């Protein structure tokens, strides 16, 4: 079963206000039998919880204020045990006094119970959380996790240890490789060299720990594609380490240390962290001592004369090929260009092309925003026609039409406008997921809601925001539907631009001002942008 899809459909349904309850009736019923409140932690905390429950962390639960402070400040628990990152449970105000809590997955299925030992207030923002209420205490396993994708690969440390013992490899060194990007030739050389040279001359087994977001299957597929080029007996395990992005309050290297602790739980004796080219490893001085050695990883370069990869010190700078960075690889895929065979194995390239098809085939949401009368519908209609002529399948979700169909009965309050836009976004994201072009033309006055739609769409394809920036005076002078006159006369309350806000986008891919251009010119400008961005073939 595709759990990912099911879960996203559920989340999507809930967000757009459609009936998610039917689907989740079972779980909710179970929650109600328990008197403790049921709470679904945010994704970072869920990642911590899974590692607590599966033995990836040697911690019994979520930290007290003293433990968190000591960890942040000294990189140690109060008893002196080294531990790199705070592991805390942020809860909303409504749960700040709870004595027990059932911790549930995003679908509401219980995962664990928490007996609260301390309720505290966090002043420092740890990780990416703002300050707020925290609950500390030990967690008790309730049920095996079912959420997220690739469950069968999310093996607990004990499972891997068991497999190695059965295979008779338990006494061999284990090189863990933390991978959070596809493994290209440079990384594969680095891993093979580490396994063969650095760790007891070829006796090492390799365990690739794939660090990927909960609902992402693509990265894992791309990493698994490199399996034949990894040492024999390489094992793979999927995990979600709490994000690095929010580590602003922590000294450098703390997340490397966390990876080392998790790797050690899997019985690893050494850790290699795969890094993008040009990303320096934090020095041991900066990060402090690790529970197992973190290998520096030899530098490799591609020698253009010899046409092979060699240790960097054996390749003269003028003969070294420059490796494309992750953003460049993304752009090559978007343009449908072949990834060079010296750079990545054909199998990995094929998987990446499958996951990130060229933009001419990739799903796209083209989202127009602007005041009433700015020209959204007129331009969107013309663009839809042009995109169709270029051979792509198009769905036009015009503001007025959506209001009559999908969002009938909604008002123009902020709440209802947001719901309207999220519904449009949900439909657009589905169209995008199936490789189509969704063209949306609502006012969408709120930046935060537009950002939500962008995020929803970008899980499955591309998002292109067009701000139709026709000034209010021009829209009002046009007053095609006579609505501005009515709004000025007070007959329409909460009218955008007159008595209701419009937040100008700062993240638009294209800004159009229609006051000095014809409709045809505006349409042509959008089509040209789609062509130059690679979403439409050049020759149309
Ligand atoms: N109070 C108020 N404010 C703004 N617009 C109003 C209002 N009442 C009705 N209309 C008409 O509804 C159209 C906008 O609907 P949208 O769904 O695009 O609006 S929103 O994105 O949900 O804010 C908008 O159509 P367009 O002119 O095509 O933008 C108006 O014709
Ligand atoms: N460059 C232009 N692009 C789009 N519309 C224009 C342009 N110049 C003038 N207009 C006129 O502005 C009006 C825009 O109305 P409409 O497309 O319904 O706007 P919206 O959907 O944003 O409410 C139309 O009457 C259209 O003819």
Highlighted features:
540 residues; alpha/beta; Sulfate adenylyltransferase; Rossmann fold; 6-stranded mixed beta sheet; 5-stranded parallel beta sheet; globular; binds 3'-phosphate-adenosine-5'-phosphate sulfate; ATP binding
Protein model, in words:
With 540 residues, the chain is of the alpha/beta class. It folds into three domains: 38-141, Roll (Sulfate adenylyltransferase), CATH 3.10.400; 151-314, HUPs (Rossmann fold), CATH 3.40.50; 359-533, Rossmann fold. The protein contains 18 helices and 17 strands. The strands form four sheets. Strands 1, 2, 3, 4, 5 and 6 form a six-stranded mixed beta sheet that branches. A five-stranded parallel beta sheet has the order 14-15-13-16-17, sandwiched between helices. Helix 7 packs antiparallel against helix 11 (346-355), helix 12 packs across helix 18 and helix 14 (414-433) runs parallel beside helix 15 (447-458). The structure holds 3'-phosphate-adenosine-5'-phosphate sulfate (PPS) and adenosine-5'-diphosphate. Residues 370, 372-379, 441, 478, 480, 514, 517-519, 522 line the site of adenosine-5'-diphosphate. Adenosine-5'-diphosphate binds at residues 370, 372-379, 441, 478, 480, 514, 517-519, 522. Residues 1-13 have a biased composition (Basic and acidic residues). This is Adenylyl-sulfate kinase.
